[in-house]
Amino acid sequence: MPTVETSPGVSLAYETFGDPSDPPVLLVMGFGAQMIAWHEDFCRALARRGRHVIRYDNRDSGLSTKFDDHPVDAGAFMAAVRSGDLPSALAMRVYTLEDMADDGLGLLTALGIERAHVVGTSMGGMIAQTMAIGRPGRVLSLTSMMSSTGEPEYGASTPEARAVLSAPKPSDREGYVAAAERELVWASKRYGDAAPLRELAAAAYDRAYYPAGAPRQLAAMVLAGSRADALRELRVPTLVIHGLDDTLIAPSGGERTAALVPDAELLLIPDMGHDRPRALWPTLIDALAAHTSTD
Fold it and tell me: Are 225 and 40 in contact (CB under 8 A)?
């Protein structure tokens, strides 16, 4: 798996699909997940539509740089946030969402790509929005998928989804794989299937089991604040995709994003949760191919 240095001390693992001469599409993954959560078959299907697809591991996940020297206790961090102790929460933050956005742009630079279509899912959507806000000249188009604006009144999780997200996962392989079934709580009601969840969990565990990175990503995401004012000023062609079954980030997160960004297109997908079930890949890939058709 190739890696490139995107900034001093930070290297990202990445993989590409398709012809490098085709329009580049950068896929940004979400909280605690590795790039393999963008399924290889999904990437290849999008590449067959004439796109140069790039997926990568965010910092502190997969095979990218880990910040082992800066441990963060997730419980202590969230306790500080809930109590309103912002100075203590900020003291625990190791890097920002802007740093994570710069990582993705740095990867493009290292690959010799000046501008790209950027597609982010969940926390990856927040990172993608941050790329477009901070460096609009480098973003040909933005797709924000199952994400939100950083405003707490939009996109709230259900208590059941929040409990699953915050619950520690077993450290042994068998337990870790079995625990992936908990994620059915935010999956598509129609297409939700434990088998692919277990398959991805097994592949992720074997590739790079690294729970220590999640609290640092969490701090970057939670302390990013609202992007509402910046999104109102955004002039990048924007597609917002959200599943109507999503209980981890409610559809109001996507609806709010599309309402703020001038001329944004909103695609609300029935029978899609906080997941990308294979049955809905044709819908998603058609939408992405259409949205990324211009240079």
Answer: no
User: Which structural domain, as residue segments, surrounds residue 48?
Assistant: 3-158+211-289
Q: Which residues pair with 28 in a beta bridge?
A: 120
What digits encode the pLDDT tens for the residues 230-239? 999 999 999 9
Please indicate, yes or no, if residue 191 is contained in any of the structural domains: no
Identity at 192, one-letter amino acid code: G
| CATH code where residue 238 lies | 3.40.50.1820
List of residues 6+ apart from 42 with CB closer than 8 A? 276, 281, 284, 285
Q: Check: pTM over 0.90? Answer yes or no.
A: yes
The domain tally of the chain equals: 1
Inter-residue contact 52 to 24 (CB < 8 Å) = yes
User: Residue 166: which of 204, 214, 223 has the closest Cα?
Assistant: 214
Longest alpha-carbon distance in the chain: 51
CA distance 147 to 105: 19
Handedness of CA 215, 220, 221, 222 (dihedral sign): positive
Domain membership of residue 173 (yes or no) is: no
Task: Work out the angle at residue 241's Cα, subtended by the Cα atoms of residues 273 and 283, and round it to the nearest 5 degrees.
Answer: 80
Query: Is 71 buried (19+), middle (13-18) or exposed (0-12) by CB count in 10 A?
Result: exposed
Whether the pLDDT of residue 128 is over 80: the answer is yes
Compute how many other C-beta atoms are within 10 angstroms of the C-beta atom of residue 231: 25
Distances (CA, A) of 74 to 7, 32, 65, 89, 218: 26, 13, 20, 10, 8
| pLDDT tens digits for range 187-245 | 999 999 999 999 999 999 999 999 999 999 999 999 999 999 999 999 999 999 999 99
